[in-house]
Amino acid sequence: MTTADRDTNVTERASTSDYKADIVDKRGKTNSVVWKWFGYQRSDKLQVSVCCRMCRRVVPTSSGNTSNLFHHLKQFHSTEYSESLKMRHHKSLSQPVPETSPAPPPSPAGVSSKEKPTQQTLIAAFMPYDKQSRRHKDITKAVTNFLAKDMMPFTTVENVGFRKMMSVIDPRYELPGRRYFSRTAIPELYGEVRERVEEKLKSASYFATTADLWSSRTSEPYMSLTVHFIDKDWSLVSLCLQTVYFPEDHTGEAIAAGLADALASWGLGEERQVCITTDSGTNVIKAAELNGWTRLQCFGHRLNSAIEKVNQDKRVDRAVGVCKKVVAAFSFSWKKKRDLAAAQEEYNLPKHKLVRETPTRWGSRQQMVKRVLEQKRAITEVLSKDKKTRSLVPTWQDVDILESIDAALSPLLEFTDALSGESYVSVSFLKPVMHLFNTSILKEAEDDTELTRTIKTTVMGYLKEKYDDPAMDDLLDMACLVDPRFKLQYTQEEKREYIKDKAMLEMLKGERAVVVRVEGPSEEAMGEASVAVPPAKKAKRSLARFFSNKPTISNTAGLSAQQAVERELGNYLLAPDADSDSDPLDWWKVYQKNFPNWQNSTCAFRPQVPPLRGFLAQVAT
Questions:
Q1: Considering just the CA atoms, what is the radius of gyration of the chain in Å?
Q2: What's the half-sphere exposure (Cβ side, CA atoms, 13 Å) at 59?
Q3: pTM of the predicted model, to two decimals?
């Protein structure tokens, strides 16, 4: 810049007030600070040419681009250019400052005190987390839980999509490789979970178990063991203790040893196990016998076996075979699926897909039959159009047989799932369900076809045969007795006194093992199955008083242990039954203080004495 130019610049700045009125601001929103020194001539209605407010020169610039404006300030107006830089800097820090205020004094390091932590924050935002930081550990633990909970392969953490997702969620987190999770993270998580499970097991005075052997998709054999017990808060707890690789031959001896070792590894004494629930495999049955364990049959497997006996009827076998072929014809042809959807629309049928049978679940077969019957018009329409599949159209005889099967077995579907739950007490439902089958669901009706009658008779006969074992019947009667919804309702009349005597005997054993108030007669004097003691005089009291939350221990003062137990059992049986939809554990949680002898028996560490909590912890799965 020449001396003449500088003089001109000074002169122009001195007379700014004269021409400022001719320069107007840019219309609309302005994001740049540079527009403080630029604008448009008042006569420029379209605001096409940008003018400098100091020198009134026209500065060429493209729409929205302010680079030339800053360059003009730098070249011709150095003071204003320095001020614009300061304003840009403060705006980027979101710290508005007066436009004419002087710059703050520099710090010893040459950087303002407010600027330094901001720079550190910006730098830290791009730095990876330290592996010992809380954030890094929390995210790694969350990924570990994801792999374990959803049983995902370790290679998931090396998949491109997963790593991309993690980088978007938190760019500063560096995801470890699969070896870290397989060799470090998962073993550490297992150790933590095992400690928590062991702590929970300490509260289990008595427990029941379920066991199963199965094969993975790669045909590798495994054995699972789950424990069920009722904790001090009367909540049913189910914990899968292990699913271990089991390459040995699946003989009864090998399974018995494996199950015994599993209990021992968790510090669970076999004498505290009330029963074990298994399927109907002969090797598993033998394993329970070798270990001397009481075995409860899996109701789902028993019902499945009963249905399999029905399929031995040639009429049923043929009709089910037709169903399988029909479903297969649609499963492997997208054209037929398309035509089926069109036929469903035409006949106003539910837009449901056909169901394929899963051999391990009889319910899937019943669902297949029900779905074929539901869609028979659409199925017939589609198959009839293709001469290759016309032979698959079910005949009227096939339809009649399928309808007979559906009428007999469809009501049983809901009971399989209802009696296979682990989150609620189900063993006490077995006898009521068997009674319901016998008197209602599987009872022959007048309008039943001959095949429907045969199916009902076959299923009911098989179930009665398998649950006719005296020891099993006693176990189910005791489970019903301690369930306040049923008590002795479903116990045979001639067995009721025997069950009550057996319950009193076990309550006395539990009392002697925990608290002995008054020495009563010996167990030998009581006999094996009867307790011949004259009933004690009962004090009058209302049911409302009986169901008060106050314990009734004072009512047994002065009575022998046997008389106290007898009175307590009598009061329990006289109490109103709990609602059928209620949870028996909730009932006992509220009224346990009213029955101290029953409560004491739940804490007794005595062999072959399945107490209240033990009975209720049995799960019919």
A1: 41
A2: 27
A3: 0.66
Q: List CB contacts of 331: < 8 A, sequence separation 6 or more.
A: 354, 356
Residues 6+ apart with CB under 8 A from 23: 39, 40, 41, 42, 51, 53, 56
For the chain, count helices (H), then strands (E).
28, 9
Residue 257 has what DSSP assignment?
Answer: H
* Interval 6-33: pLDDT, tens: 545 544 454 444 445 588 888 877 778 8
Structure tokens at 527: 């006999």
Nearest to 273 by CA among 201, 203, 199, 209: 209
Each residue of 373-382: b (16+ CB within 10 Å) or e?
bebbebbbbb
Alpha-carbon distance of 38 to 40, in angstroms, equals 7
423/428 Cα distance (integer angstroms): 14
Distance from C-alpha of 167 to C-alpha of 354, rounded to nearest angstrom: 42
Summarised one tens digit per residue, pLDDT across range 87-143 is 876 765 544 444 444 444 444 444 444 445 555 666 666 688 888 999 999 999 999
Which pairing describes strands 221-230 and 236-245: parallel, antiparallel, or unpaired? antiparallel
Separation of alpha carbons 292 and 271, rounded Å = 10
Using the structure block, give the residue that is written with the tokens 């018995």: 256
Q: Which sign does the torsion angle of CA 395, 397, 398, 402 carry?
A: positive
